[in-house]
Amino acid sequence: MSGVESVEHDVVIVGSGIAGLRAAVEIKRVYGEKVSVGVISKVQLMRSHSVAAEGGTAAVLYREEGDSFSLHAWDTVKGSDFLADQDVVWLMVKLAPEEMRLLEHWGIPWSRRPDGRIAQRAFGGHSFNRALYAADKTGFYEMQTLYNKLLEYDGWERYDEWFVTNINIEEGEFRGLYALNPRDGNIYLFKAKAAIIATGGAGRIYNFTTYSHSVTGDGLAMAFRAGLPLKDMEFVQFHPTGLVPSGILISEAARGEGGYLLNSKGERFMARYAPQRMELAPRDIVSRAMMTEIMEGRGFKDPVSGLEYVLLDLRHLGEDKINEKLPAIREIALKHAGIDPVEEPIPVRPVAHYTMGGIHTDTYYRALDVEGRWIKGLFVAGEAAAASIHGANRLGSNSTTECLVSGRIAGMLAAEYALRVKEARGPSRERSLAEEDWVYKLVRRESGTPSYQIRRELQETMDTRFYVFREGDSMRGGALKIIKLREAMRREGYVEDKSRVYNTDLILAIETLNMLDVALVVTKSAIARTESRGAHYRFDYPRRDDSSWLKHTLAIRYGEDDVSLSYEPVRITTWKPTERKY
Ligand SMILES: Cc1cc2nc3c(=O)[nH]c(=O)nc-3n(C[C@H](O)[C@H](O)[C@H](O)COP(=O)(O)OP(=O)(O)OC[C@H]3O[C@@H](n4cnc5c(N)ncnc54)[C@H](O)[C@@H]3O)c2cc1C
Fold it and tell me: Which of the listed residues 318, 350, 382 is the one where a domain comes to its end?
């Protein structure tokens, strides 16, 4: 092995989803060629998971019609089951409208009202129709718009399909990161004055999920390995309407446009659980209602997969409206379930959809250590960050908003920092060689268990023991299983493909190690939280307990196999917690 070559930029961005691209655009449009930028993505830049975002992006546009910053902030805080940090929520809500206008100027084809003004649709938990949308392909158009904008500038490089393996932190400072270039199989050191981690969530630790296969929590696992705290990882969002049996998302826009949920008796059962908001209650509430119906025998069962479900009925919307507002939903239902929603209801059940937790940051998306000190030069944006806006339950359409706002903030601060710092400091040569060793140890092993087998067992454990309803003994059993799988992967994880070029088998193995690290944190954080709040609902502790648990979980690595938990107060600036009714 020849040793590690290095690449240098002022700012390196890991991730080219909405958050990563927005950060890159901000740096370029404000600082031009004064700041060189590298954008790394393990998939082709435009194949980042964000292109899958369907339904919309929340922002206050029409105050004259009754919406307000205060209403958006309140909806978000109430939706979070009061675990959101309210100062960050206010910041996002106030910056969001400008982001929408910028996208408009950069060419996004927002859907329109008949009078030509930008249209907005209903989303769960929002008390005003405030989700801007581009049909039901919002994420795709946002990505395309940001990418087109970025192409106007020079002084940035893209590293498509490069796989970042670890970030390096020394003396409380970012000191470069490592990436595997699949074209030559070598590990490269990226030296930079500042880095932005925009690697998205970790939904693929579940099997029944809406996430792209690439969303394996790599950034979170790297932060964890580097000794940074992961915040509130017990809170995983289950979106009510995952298509059965694939788990592909049927966007909340379908209910926003008027779709109903029905049980096997033909009842709109949400009347029993959220009489005012009905199908447009927040996702945690709708998902629990669906699972209660199923568990009490009012669901259906798919004969092939064995998955139980209820129905989403769009028939009353009519073909024209479905074609105009929900074309992708019709196509998805037809292609993946053989069902035309114009004629038949769609089988759906709750599906893993969003990682509320993430890398611990302050209000301005600066990565923090467990003492709350900024890791100099390191920023986080988008779903990878826990700033925390979504608390225990995210409202639909607020994620892409956060991606845009956090990308902008992180981009601006990273560029300013890079301009202040004289040179990028890297790690020692020994550290770099150790990284190569860490990666290629997996390839050198002669026999063992293929990572896909371990990954499958992990996903089964998460699907069954850390789903919509949880319980202590079952979770403890799940945690033991994950510890064993983690040991097995480290001891005998086997990469069959021994080649250096485009060794995707090796990448699958590293992803599996990452998923196991993240799952360990989810399980330990979930077991410790002995209350029910937002998406974390426990049969053995069915009540929210503000006196003991109105606090954020911070999980850091402890030795090889354990996690040490500490807690931090929620920042409450405006609203004290109350009972959540919809
Ligand atoms: C099907 C679906 C529909 C959704 N619809 C909506 C919606 O309508 N509205 C809304 O607000 N939210 C929606 N969401 C949520 C939203 O799409 C995501 O939270 C958001 O797109 C995340 O964007 P991101 O930029 O943080 O990360 P991502 O878009 O996930 O991008 C992550 C990037 O990191 C890169 N990366 C990751 N690991 C590595 C590594 N090891 N090395 C190199 N690169 C790496 C990836 O290649 C990628 O470029 C939806 C989610 C799903 C699953």
Answer: 350
Residue range of the domain that includes 448:
433-543
List, for residues 3-61, the tens digit of each pLDDT value: 689 999 999 999 999 999 999 999 999 999 999 999 999 999 999 999 999 889 999 99
Residue 463 belongs to some domain of the structure: yes
Q: How far is the CA of 84 from the centre of ligand 1 (A)?
A: 20
Q: Are 299 and 364 found together in one domain?
A: no
Pairing between β-strand 163-170 and β-strand 173-181 as defined by DSSP bridges:
antiparallel
Quick one: which atom of ligand 1 is closest to the CA of 210?
A: 53
**Closest ligand 1 atom, residue 43 Cα:** 47
What's the 189 CA to ligand 1 centre distance in angstroms?
A: 25
Q: Which segments within 393-466 are labelled E, that is strand?
A: 449-450
Give the mutation target among 48, 225, 239, 379 for probing the ligand 1 site: most ligand atoms within 8 A of CB: 48
- Give percent of the chain above pLDDT 90: 94
Q: Based on the domain organization, do 242 and 341 belong to the same domain?
A: yes
CATH number for the domain that contains residue 340? 3.90.700.10
Whether residue 2 is predicted with pLDDT greater than 90 in this model: the reply is no
Cβ(200) – ligand 1 distance below 6 Å: yes
Q: Which atom of ligand 1 is nearest to the CA of 56?
A: 8
Residues 6 or more apart whose CB falls under 8 angstroms from that of 280 comprise 122, 123, 124, 125, 255, 256
Q: Which residues share a beta bridge with 208?
A: none
User: Mean pLDDT, to the nearest integer, of 377-385?
Assistant: 98
**Cα 383 to ligand 1 centroid, rounded to whole Å:** 7
Based on the fold, state whether residues 250 and 231 are members of the same structural domain.
no
Q: Are 529 and 536 in contact (CB under 8 A)?
A: yes
1: pLDDT strictly greater than 70? no
C-alpha closest to that of 22 among 419, 355, 388, 379: 379
Atom of ligand 1 nearest to the CA of 222: 41
Question: How confident is the prediction for the chain on average, in pLDDT?
Answer: 96
Write out pLDDT tens, residues 385-417: 999 999 999 999 999 999 999 999 999 999 999
> Which pLDDT score, from 0 to 100, does residue 312 have?
98
192-249 pLDDT tens trace: 999 999 999 999 999 999 999 999 999 999 999 999 999 999 999 999 999 999 999 9
**Test site for ligand 1: of 40, 41, 513, most ligand atoms within 8 A of the Cβ:** 41
Instruction: Give me the CATH number covering residue 506.
Output: 1.20.58.100
Compute the distance from residue 237 Cα to the ligand 1 centre, in Å: 14
Place of tokens 């202040």: 420
Query: What is the rounded distance in angstroms from the CA atom of residue 356 to the CA atom of residue 131?
Result: 19
Active-site residue list: 239, 255
Determine if ligand 1 sits within 6 Å of the CB of residue 42.
yes
Same-domain status, 326 and 397:
no
How confident is the model over 238-264, as a mean pLDDT? 95
Name which residue sits closest to atom 33 of ligand 1, judged by CA: 15
Residues 333-345, mean pLDDT to the nearest whole number: 96
Q: How far is residue 84's CA from residue 398's CA, in Å, rounded to a whole number?
A: 13
How many angstroms separate the alpha carbon of residue 42 from the centre of ligand 1?
12
Contacts of 307 (CB under 8 A, 6+ apart): 208, 244, 245, 301, 349
User: Which of 333, 350, 367 is the C-terminal boundary of a domain?
Assistant: 350
Q: Whose CA is nearest to atom 27 of ligand 1?
A: 200
Q: What are phi and psi of 420, to 5 degrees?
A: -85, -25
What confidence score (pLDDT) does residue 3 get?
Answer: 63
